[in-house]
Amino acid sequence: MKNIILSMALAVLTAIPAIGQTRIQNCFYGVEIRSSYNEMKNCRELRKVINDKYRNFNWMRRHAYDWVNNKEEKVRFSNMSFGGRRWAYCEYYFNDDKTFYQIRFYDGAKEPQATRRTYDNLLKDLKSKYHGQRGIEMTEDILWEDDLSISTTFTGNNGMTCELRYSYEAASSGEMYYYVFLTYYDQKLKKEAKYGWLEEL
Q1: What pTM value is reported for the model?
Q2: Which of 7, 104, 145, 150 could join 183 via S-S bond, C-beta 3.0 to 4.6 A?
Q3: pLDDT tens across 110-134, in order?
Q4: Strands laid side by side in the 85-94 sheet
């Protein structure tokens, strides 16, 4: 009888995380939002991921944390695993103080089926995790014709936002792709970073 009661208690405890979250995630590969660039570079968990990834590529491992286009705004890693999925790119964004405020995962394809399937499946997972939870608000933009994109946003009372977006847009090469983007960001820091860029114009 004691074994049955213990088993039931363990089942309840292990089921709790699956019910949902009351806060939007703010830590990625061991790096918390609001960490500095140097703290990101020295994070053991992320470093292990990068070292394993580039185990046989010394040059790539040494330059993994280089700024994209030599601009101290973001660091990009390719072929990263997150949320049970493989992403073509993962980008860490930093403000003028080199404070980490946003992370973005994305993948693109010439044909719409694969990335749209990723969007739909990931949306189910995110709704299961966040929708209806105390302190989290969900908003949806489903009008594709407006700007060739749809999105679902989860805004938490811990200052974090999670946005899932599917869009048809141009890559840096000018070619058009169907993209799926998963972005997490600190609302206050992102707003400050945006105004910082505008002041430079």
Answers
A1: 0.85
A2: 104
A3: 999 999 999 999 999 999 999 999 9
A4: 74-82, 85-94, 100-109, 176-186, 160-170, 149-156, 136-141
